[in-house]
Amino acid sequence: MSFTNDVLADVADVLEVQPFACPSCQKDIERKVMQVHGIQGIEEGSVLAQLQCDDCEHNSLERMAVSDVLPHAAQRFVLQLTKDSDWQSRRVFKSRTTMLCIPEIGLDSASTSVAGGTILDLLEAVRDEMTNVPAFQGLAHADGMLQMMGFMEKFNDVLDGTCEATLEMEDAASRLCFIEARGEADAHLFVKR
Question: Contact 90/72 with Cβ under 8 angstroms?
């Protein structure tokens, strides 16, 4: 697989940068773990791992399973979406079978076609996809419409960071999902491997 850095920038998002030893000269370098968008031959649940060494000019790009390159990938994550945390900008990667829940607002078993980006990107996609389904657009019953509007108001409060909530991501099909960890304080984030 051969991609230039410019092409990679257009089709891949860096999920994590890891310390690594260059396989050619053993110098300490970084491995970029990337999620790829819209390239045939890169199956779901795979990421690309890129190594570049400035000293010996080693350059490699390898397709790997999420579980092989992201040791903290799991089947289930629970993350507190608090007002004073940095949850909105955390990177996320998931398969199409991953279900999302925010129990405090009644969001249960939601999914989205969006595979990754930030947590905020993912939740905005869930909201946008929910409002575009025919059942939502065709709500004729006043009580149903009021109930849905109240739900969407709570959902927007979570997205704006004005309402604290819990995000649960679970992939029962064992396809593994990933939320970017930020330090030792995130040890509680990974629930089930």
Answer: no
pTM of the full structure: 0.63
The token duo for 92 is 């996320």
Residue 169: enclosing H or E segment and its boundaries? strand 165-170
Asked if 115 contacts 38 with a C-beta cutoff of 8 angstroms, the reply is: no
Ordered per-residue pLDDT tens for the chain, 193 residues: 445 555 555 567 777 788 899 999 999 999 888 776 654 445 555 678 888 899 999 988 887 776 676 655 666 778 888 887 788 888 777 766 778 889 999 888 777 777 677 888 888 988 888 877 666 655 556 666 677 788 889 999 999 888 889 888 887 665 566 677 666 656 555 555 4
Say how many C-beta atoms besides its own lie within 10 A of residue 106's C-beta.
Answer: 12
> How far is the CA of 144 from the CAs of 76, 77, 139, in angstroms?
32, 31, 7
189-to-11, 31, 104, 145 alpha-carbon distances in Å = 28, 23, 18, 35
- Picking from 48, 74, 47, 72, the residue whose alpha carbon sits closest to that of residue 60 is 48
